[in-house]
Amino acid sequence: MDQLLINSGFPILSVLIFLPLIGAIVLLFIKSESLCRNIALATTSVVGLLSIRLLFGFDTTTAKFQFVEHKSWIEAFNINYTLGVDGISILLILLTTFIMPFCVLASWSYIKTRVQAFMICLLIMETAMLGVFVALDFVLFYVLWEAMLIPMYMLIGIWGGPRKIYASIKFFLYTLAGSILLLVGIIWLYTVNDHSFFIPDMMWKDYALSSQVYLFIAFFLAFAIKVPMFPFHTWLPAAHVEAPTAGSVILASVLLKMGTYGFLRFALPITPEATVLLMPYVLWLSIAGIIYGGFTALAQSDMKKLIAYSSVGHMGFVTLGIFVLNIDGVKGAILQMINHGITTGALFLCVGMIYERTHSRELRSATGIGKYMPIYITFLAFFSLSSFGFPGTNSFVGEFMILAGAFEFSTSQNNFPYLALAAIPGAVLAAAYMLRMLQKIIWGGTDNPDQSWLSDINTREIVTLAPFLFFVFWIGLGPQPFLDLIHTSVYELLQHFDIHHGQAVAAAGSILH
Amino acid sequence: MEYKLLIALLIPLLGTIGVMYKGDNENLREGISCVSSLLLLCVVGSIVPQVLGGKTLTLQMFTILPGVTVTLRADAMSMIFALVASSLWTIAVFYSMGYMRGLNEHAQTRFNACFALAIFGAIGVAFSDNLFTMYLFYEIVSICTYPLVAHHQDEEGYNGARKYIVYLTTTAKAFLLPAMILIYVLTGTLDFASNAHSGIFPAGVSNVLVTMLYIFCLFGFAKNGVMPFHHWLPGAMVAPTPVSALLHAVAVVKVGVFCTTRVMLYTFGTDTMHALNLGIPTAYFVSFTVLVASIIALSKDNLKARLAYSTVSQLSYIILGVALLTDPGIQGGLIHIVNHAFSKITLFFCAGAIYVATHKKYISEMEGLGKTMPFTFAAFGIASLSMIGAPPVAGFITKWNLLIGSVEAHQLGILLILIASTMLNAAYFAPITYKAFFGKRPEGEPFTGIKEAPLSMLIPILIACTISVLLGIFPNFMLQFVKAVTG
After folding, report:
1. Residues of chain B positioned with their CB less than 8 A from the CB of A416
2. Could you tell me if B100 and B111 are in contact, meaning their C-beta atoms sit under 8 angstroms apart?
3. What does the alpha-carbon distance between residue A248 and residue A99 come to, in Å, rounded to a whole number?
4. Residue from B173, B184, B207, B238 whose CB has the most chain A CBs within 10 Å, to mutate
5. From the CA of B124, how many Å to the nearest CA of chain A?
6. B65 touches chain A (CB under 8 A)
7. A431 contacts on B by Cβ (under 8 Å)
8. B32/B109 Cα distance (integer angstroms)
9. DSSP annotation string for B335-363
10. What is the CB-side half-sphere exposure of residue B349 using CA atoms within 13 A?
């Protein structure tokens, strides 16, 4: 238990988790639709403001878990209610609490049926997502991990587009299939760890290499589907296209990060030797995802599909950064998770705003609106630029660090940097599909449909987008405060690899080349 | 004094905002453009004495990562480009007022705003203290000039603009981005060196990687028009003429060559380039562009297309000069940034004036026009002389230095190429003026209705032309800067 640090007596994490749940329960008794919206907005906003409290009192000099809460839950199986935050999870928690109020705002006029149920789903979703990021007990983690599926299934299945049933079942089955193996892995770990589900206890143990490999594969399937890594991504475009705006935003901004978070929290510390052994394959799979996502996004005529495939590419960069196992790569990957959450979330909000007006996600029905919606276009342009890593925006910093990590991976062993160079076409493609979309929406061609009836975005919509833009530039021009939060945890994580597995890393590097 | 750099950068940005805000009032909008351009010229001018006094101004604005910052710097080399960009913006603003109003163009607010934004990018590039800052402003120029190229919003405009943006962003992402990151990984910084010789690479860095990085940088700044990535430039000629003039003879292409030469001298440094023998192969490589682009220019009847290929050819002079790595070579190359800018903008302005006055685009239709448009064609003739490199016009100073540079580098081949290209320049420029003055109007096409271009266009033309001559007669002012670069 020496990995834990209790910085204050106030159970801030429990408050963050349960407040949305309480809000959901309150909503059960509210009939008025507008009151439902307001209560949901108030709840998510309060959670958002309370979560800022985490920044005060968070000790950036230690990799220990902080704000820890520990209560016994099911004593018979030694299952506990243990929560904690470290540098890997703190930004993800803040991202989640930041996103949620805007999901409510984006659904303000978009959702017209069963508003009460919709808001309840959103709030339960927030509880589950926050829980996943702070759970330090494997059973607690798994329960919340699975609990996320149900409200998300409903968000897509009830308020989704024409093919919502297909999309929601596909989403459900894919994720469930991955997590079954995760459960097997958890039970195996329980048996070899003196019947403990306490996650930090399982890390950095000398499990036999063969067990590690099996365990890694179980983790990998669960998390790779969630990321989603190529070739496990096919549920994502379907889910994104059919989901309502808020669903797409949650999916892109937070749910996809669960997979990469899982790699960092479980796969790397619990199965380090298997990680090093299988690293080359994961790296090249990431490259495949980057290129594949780029090409597929370039071919889309549906805006939501385009952004969904772009996510496959962007998340490929994140997994690339994680598995090069050096400080720039991993820090860049965590930062890029946040960046992707902000930028892609905002892009889905933007697409939702067009959809509310034209009732179409087709690119060709949205051509040439630049002249009539100048404010909207300004936002869209900055988010698109951010998405393909324009210098001065948030994604550039993340991409830069990840690619720097990929170059270091090769140059530190005096190898030619094939890996990093292989990812570069992905960056080119990102610019291509984003600029193509931007060009079509702003300018179109010589035969645009008549768009003169469109009204520019209103104040509520500006308020929804403006904070995202603020973070695009803040992280883009001054990322140090964000990087400081994650530095120590990543440094400590990688120290373990340097001490025990330095030679293994070198060996894997030579396999790669 | 450092804050002046920030002011210089902010003036065009604030100008953009002002133009957009006052877009519905034509006179006020253009008034804002004029005032911003004059203010910028004054601020840049006020930095000159300090830089000539040997000072280097730097101003750090943002820190992205350790060694990766947004920092502005004014040294001798940045002043060369900053002076060119700011003074030509002033001239071009006045010219484009006459041109755009003369042709009654649409979306003039967007046009003026993007114009100012492009200058914002160009000034940012000029004052960059490191590769990241340079990349940032380089990309801003790419994005902000798209609306200018696509200005007419017809099929041709969209196609030209698509080619433009695809070439420029693809090369920047495919070559520049990895080069920049690898330089950071190898050296831990993206800052430029403090002089043109030492470079930033520590001993022991793999020669293969440095050579690869060098090639990436040469191709990554595709705005420099080096073949095979030059195609965007002729394609971008669909833009209105003031855009072609300022952006494709000055701001955009000069951003390209300025970045290329800046990186050659201040990231790699002459010492590294000598050691890895990168200079002379580069000189021969760009010689290909010099010659081939001239030959293509010969075959073009569209005046703007001929000027475009002439630009492709002349830009490579600049890189060729620097790649010789001798003092006169570097000086000749860098001074050509200035000389080519003033002469080429004169030529484009003339082409625009001819179009406004006669609606003629093809050289074969211009025979005999010199009698009705004497000032325009006289200016065209003088600027052509500069392109050819005849004394006493500005281009002569370039040619002189380049020839000495190639002799000092013991490169007879380069010398011959320079002579051959001079002859080619003469071959595609001289006939235009000659036929305009001494040719006959075709049968059945009398002079009726054709007058000299309006004064609002003629005055900027004559100013730019006069400066071209003055730069040739009094070259010392600009030579001070390039001599400070070689040290």
Report:
1. 208
2. yes
3. 12
4. B173
5. 13
6. yes
7. 169-170, 173
8. 11
9. HHHHHHHHHHHHHHHHHHHHHHHH---BG
10. 39
pLDDT at A1 over 70: no
Beta bridge partners of A69: A83
CA distance A98 to chain B (A): 23
Q: How many domains does chain B have?
A: 1
Query: Tokens representing B299?
Result: 């075959």
DSSP state of B54: T
Enclosing domain of residue B460 = 277-487
| DSSP-assigned letter for residue A254 | I
SS3 B62: strand
**Closest Cα in chain A to B183:** A404
Q: Which residues of chain B from 72 to 91 reach within 8 Å of chain A, CB to CB?
A: none
Whether residue B320 lies inside any domain: the answer is yes
pLDDT in tens, chain B (487 residues): 788 889 999 999 998 888 888 777 778 888 888 889 999 999 999 999 988 888 888 899 898 888 899 999 998 899 999 999 999 888 888 888 877 777 777 777 888 888 889 999 999 999 999 999 999 999 999 998 888 888 888 888 888 888 889 999 999 999 999 999 999 998 888 999 888 888 888 888 888 889 999 999 999 998 888 888 888 888 888 888 888 887 777 788 999 999 999 999 999 988 888 888 888 999 999 999 999 999 999 998 888 888 889 999 999 999 999 999 999 999 999 999 999 999 999 998 898 888 888 888 888 888 888 888 888 888 999 999 998 888 888 888 888 999 999 999 888 999 999 999 999 999 988 888 888 888 777 666 665 667 777 888 888 899 999 999 998 899 888 888 888 888 7
Q: Please check whether residue B194 lies inside any domain of the structure.
A: no
Number of Cα atoms under 13 Å in the Cβ half of residue A64: 14
More confident residue, A23 or B106: A23
SS (H, E, C) A101-168: HHHHHHCCCCCCCCHHHHHHHHHHHHHHHHHHHHECEHHHHHHHHHHCHHHHHHHHHHHCCCCHHHHH
Per-residue confidence (pLDDT) for residue A511, from 0 to 100: 45
Q: Could you give the residue ranges of the DSSP H alpha helices within B172-275?
A: 177-187, 207-220, 232-235, 241-246, 252-263, 269-275
Report the half-sphere exposure of A244 (CA within 13 A, side-chain side). Answer: 28
Residue B465, CA distances (Å) to A162, B44, B381, B393 in order: 66, 22, 10, 9
CA distance A151 to A269: 30
* Contact residues for A341 (Cβ-Cβ < 8 A; gap 6+): A95, A99, A252, A253, A254, A257
In chain A, what percentage of residues exceed pLDDT 70?
96
CA distance A284 to A315: 13
Say if the Cβ atoms of A420 and B143 lie within 8 Å.
Answer: no
List the beta strands (DSSP E) in A264-324. Answer: none
* Chain B residue nearest residue A436, CA to CA: B162
- If one counts every other C-beta atom within 10 angstroms of the C-beta of residue A358, the result is 16
**Domain residue spans in chain A?**
12-512
Tell me the C-alpha distance between A102 and A346, whole Å: 9
Q: Is B209 on the interface with A (CB under 8 A)?
A: yes
Cβ of B206 within 8 Å of Cβ of A414? The answer is yes
A344 has pLDDT over 90: yes
Helix (H, G, I), strand (E, B) or coil at A83: strand
Residue with tokens 């990168």: B278
Burial of A458-470, coded b for 16+ CB within 10 Å and e otherwise, reads eeebeebbeebbe
3-state secondary structure of A58: coil
Q: Which helix (H) or strand (E) holds A204?
A: none
Q: Per the domain annotation, does B472 fall within a domain?
A: yes
ipTM: 0.91
Residue A64 one-letter amino acid: K
Using one digit for the tens of pLDDT, what is the confidence trace for A458-475?
888 899 899 999 999 999
Provide the shortest C-alpha distance from residue A87 to chain B (in Å): 18
